[in-house]
Amino acid sequence: MTRPAVIWLALIGVVVLALAIGLLSALVRSEPLARRFGGWLERVTTRLWRAFHRTPPSGVAQGVMDVREPSKDTFSRHGLAAFSAAVAAKLAWFVVLEVALWSVGITPDLLPPSVVLAAMATVALVALIPITPGAVGVSEVAYIGFLTAVGGAGLTDQITAAIVIFRAAQWLAPIPIGWILLVIMRGSHWREIEQAPGDGATSAARPVEREPARS
User: Fold this and answer.
1) pTM
2) How far is Cα 123 from Cα 129, in angstroms, rounded to an integer?
């Protein structure tokens, strides 16, 4: 069973995320609001740093404006579609990991879905550190260590098997799917390349009309 504390933390996280997205959307839509918010944030940070006898940071308001400009593309129609697709892809891999855990006998009673999702978020942060190409080896160790710490040492073998299945799916499945999408996306371009020599040969074989000689 999922603990009530985990549910409350998840709800608080969703609320904080919704507020952050709403604030960023409002700042993108209104430049005066972004300037006021940047000025307020700079005053707050200045007072906070001075309370700890530290040199306050400078350029906070300008930093808010700098973040606002590139965020316009994210909150455009195409940007939101790309963001939604990225979230859907992450949730799809979450389902794959859950299926891999179920296939080795680890049910949600042993590892709640919230723990598995937290493990994916932690591993995503760890993978940002460029230790190995594609975080090979690092991600596997992080997954096994995190899930074993929650599930217990008795599930180490099953968790290891599930992570091997999951990582194999992550590495092997995108390759054929990528080739199929590449063929679809580049099909029209390849047809144009194939037709180009024929057009050139036709134009070369076409007789050149000569103008009649003038007397």
Assistant:
1) 0.52
2) 10
Total length of the chain: 215
Q: Which residues of the chain have pLDDT under 50?
A: 1-2, 199-205, 208, 215
Which residue's entry shows tokens 């994916």?
Answer: 120
Cα(144)–Cα(162) distance, rounded to whole angstroms? 9
In sequence order, what DSSP letters do the residues of 193-205 get, joined into one string? HHHHHHHHHHHHH
In the block, residue with structure tokens 């040199």:
55
Say which residue the tokens 């103008």 belong to. Answer: 211
User: Which is nearest to 140 in space by CA: 150, 153, 129, 127?
Assistant: 127
DSSP 128: T
Q: What are phi and psi of 2, to 5 degrees?
A: -80, 130
Q: Report the Cα 193 to chain-centroid distance in Å.
A: 34
* 133 CB burial (10 A radius; 0-12, 13-18, 19+): exposed
How does pLDDT run across 105-127, given as a tens digit for each residue? Answer: 888 888 888 788 888 888 887 77
